[in-house]
Every structure is written in structure tokens, then in C-alpha cells.
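#lab-general

N.A. 3:47 PM
ok so I finally got the sequence cleaned up, no stray characters, all 582 residues accounted for. can someone with queue access submit it? mine expired

B.Y. 3:52 PM
send it over

N.A. 3:53 PM
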Amino acid sequence: MEIDENILTLDEFIKLPTTVSFNVVNIDRFQAYARDKPYIRLGTQLANLLVIAYTNQNNISRIFEELGSEFLDFFPKLLSPLDARSNEASGIAQVLNQPILNLSGRGVIIGFIDTGIDYTKEAFKFEDGTTKILYIWDQTIDGDRPDYLYYGAAYTSEQINEALASENPFDVVPSRDDDGHGTFLASVAASNETGNYIGAAPKSYIISVKLRSAHEFYREMFLIDRNNPNVYESTDYLLGMKYIFDRSEELNLPVVLCVGVGSNMGGHDGNSALEDYIDFVVQNTGYAVVAAAGNESNARHHTQGRILSTGQSDTISLKTGRDGSSFSLFIYAANYDRISVSVTSPTGDIVARVPFRVGTRYSKTLLLENTTITIEYYRGSNTIIFLRFIAATQGIWEITLYGNVVVSGEYHAWLPITGQADVGLEFLKPVPEYTIVFPATSMRGMACGAYNSNDGSLFVSSSWGPTRHPRHSPDFVAPGVNVAGIYPTGSGTMTGTSVSAAVVAGASALSLEWGILQGYYPSMDGPLVKALLISGAIRDTGGIYPSNKWGFGKINLYESFRSIQETSMNFPSDILSISENN
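B.Y. 4:20 PM
back already:
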């Protein structure tokens, strides 16, 4: 029997396997458009008027075309964890050991929107055995939740403590972290376990959101393997952000969000719905966002070039790793440039030049092979070329770019990030710059790269800046190679910029505790936390800073407080008088 979707509640409608999400700014024009369209269901609205909406997947293309929204600011981006599968080096241990500073993250929330958290671990308990976790929102479970959530199940600290006191905790709170990435990041930032696994802010509270997997419709749209469990939608991430920030506001506690996922979708210029929300939020007192810069510098997933003038062309060459793989790529240029493309296969079969026209969607199956190529053109704040290769022949593909109208002529192309792309899919002339991933490319958040604290070298995969805005990025680097932490299965190590972001999230929590809760800087917000960490960053003699690799240097929270001591009249003169060696 066919379901009448219009009579379903929003909770019921979202559960349907055919329902997909999109995001749009809820201005008068959109309200007028949606008013007589019952197949558009409005969900949660964020503080900057961005609204997450839902519809049947059969309607999504028509809605997009009728609205004329900027491509990829309408559709969710697909995110994946940023690990490559310490506190002393970052100056955090010295700060924790200063009795006069008395900093431990107490009274500050660190939020994680990731693969979940294993709440049963000792790392996430206080000394009396009660949980450090204030709330868990598990988007993958259909259970009890407050009215403002339309899917998933939410659990309070009281319910978590009840579970911890029971013989079978997961019978009471059935939220698990089957992957371990979220649990590990939370342990690096906030573990209260003594010994080798103490976190950067051990007394901080935690709020965890477990992301649900991306819808199969969007996996097919962007040609991401449907069997990859670690692919998530930015719309679900946005709702996770609002959930964490709203809870912190209710409790009147400062909050740091640790962003350990990323994507190559978007223009890498900070101009997206999620990044706009980050920039909006962190300007408020008590809010900070730390994002992993990405592990893409040596992944060969970015290239760039320039079409010198109108009528000239340039060529991008890429190699597929295996026969029959499917993938997509994006080419971004200035919105005043008009660029069209043609494609040549490894066997010499050609998709002839497709004229540039906004909204074009062209598809061709090659004559001599079983590959289908689609080419789409869009224009908003950028000119965007979206290409899809379905069942691509193994070998070298060439994409020729033609300058219809050239003012700048500069273009950038990105393949999916590591974890979303097949091994061996790469550009033949890769460029390691401009590999900072979304949403670390936001303007006011903190973008954190990784280095090896054992030998002081940059982590080989740590993404390089700048961004296309442009701005200097990353802001700094933190330990991110073989960092110790806790998985659901026990202790271990992890490498990647998501680990570095967790270290900086802990340092940011200590900064907010000092500034707001101890009263030294009651108006401290995200940009001020960033400035504090930059002020104490360690910069090698002879180096040029900020740099595209190191940002402003290696974070060192102890040196940040030394810097404040030297420049602030309100900072107690004896607060760092104890020897650093102690």
C-alpha cells in the first residue's frame, strides 16, 4: 500500500528510506516557495536562519532547480573521520601541574560529533564513578528523545549513571561506538584516567553525538561506496552542533567543539552553510571550534592551474587505481570565469566539449568501454564543474578545460578525501597546497595540523594551506603521530589531524576555564582562544611564519600563559613562578 507522506509526522517522515535532507537559508523567498509544497518538510532552524529540510528523494532535483540555490550549499556534503589508521609536547602537562593556575577543564564542555563514545570506559568517569558525559544523542537508534529532536535517541547523565550501575549497561543505554574514532578523540581531549592516558582537560564534561550514516541517495550522487560505514551528511552534523551548543547554553557552561571529520566537497574558501554556522557561533562568549586540517597533503587529491586567457585551454590528468571504479570530482573557479570541459578516456574515447551553461547536466556512455561520464555546470559564489565517472576504465584520464570567458583563469580540482576515494585514484600533477579540508576552511574556527612530537617533524600527510578565501591555514599544529589513547577495545595509538584537533580542543577547554570560569577574561570567545594559542606557539629559529604547513607553529599552552604574564597587568605575577621542569 502506498504511503501518504503528507499525513505523517516529521519524525515518521524522516524514518522513511526515501526521505533525504537538504539545507537552505529560511528567508522570505524560500518561505514563499515552500508554502504550497507539502512535500517539503521543515525541520530544525539554526540561529543564523539556516534550516534543515526534508523531502522525498524523487523531489530533490526539482526543488534544487526551482530554487536556483548554489550547488553543494543546498545538498549536504559527505564527511569522513580524519585519522590515518601529546600532552607534554603541547605544554598542557606543564599547565595541569601548576597548582596556582588550577586548570583541569572543570566546568567546560567538550563536544564530539563522530562515531559515538564508549561511555563505560573509566576514562569518562569522575573519581566517584559517576559519568563525565552530560548527554549522548545517538542518531542511529530510534528511541526516546525530546520533542526538538526528530530522530535518534537521547540520553542524559542520569540515565548513563543508571546504566553504569547496572549489570548490563548497554541494556539501559544501548549507544555504542563500533568504530572507536569518537571514543579515542574524547579520551585524548578529556580522559580522566590517571597514568599514560590522562586527557588534556581531564575534569571537563563531554557531550557526544553519534552520527548516522549518509543516505544511499547521496552516496550514489557523489559515487561514494555504499559499504563504507564512515560517511556522514553535513546536515546531520549541523544538527549535532546545534544540539551541543543548545545544551551548553541551557547549562550556562563554556563549550569547545572538536571536529574530527572532513571532506573535499566545497570550494575550500569557507563559503558554506556549515562553515557560516561555525563563524556565527564562535563570535559568542564561551564558544570555540577546533577542526582537523585533514590528512591530504600527500594524497594527490588536489591539483590546480590557470587558463591564461579567453580561448585558451589547460589539461588535468588523473589515474584510476582499478578497473571499474566509480568516483566524482569537483573543479572550482572564480564565478566570473566561464569554463567548459571535454574528457578523454585511457583508450582515446572522447566526450566532446560540453558548452558551458549554468544548470547543464550532460551524460554519455563511451562507445568503446563501459564507462559513463556526467558533466554538470553550476554558478554561485564560484563557478563549479561537477564530473562523475561511473565504472571508469583503469588508466589515465584527461580533462581539458576551455576558457570561454577568462578574467582570472585560476582553477582548483579536488578528488574525494582519503577514506572516500579508491586507493590509487590520484592526479598526475598534484599540488599539496590548498588541501585543508572542509570545514577546517572556516574563517573563524581553528584549523589544526599535525606533527610528530617525538622528532619534531611535520606529519607527512598533514594538509597544507592556504584556503581559497584566502587566509593563512592551518592556524597551528599539535601532536598527531602515534598519540596514545583509548578505544572501546582498550588502549592504543592513532595518527592523524583529528587527534591533533582533540589535543587542541583540550587546550581550548583549559583556556576557557581560565578566561571565563576563573574570571581573567570573561568575554573570551573562539577567536580569542585562537589568539591565545597562537601567542604561545613554538616557532623554529629561521622559519617563516605563518606558513602553509606549520601555521603559526606548534601549540604550547604553557608558553601562551607565559606570554600573557609578560603582557597583562591583570595576570598574577607569580602564577608561573614554579619551574617548568616541575
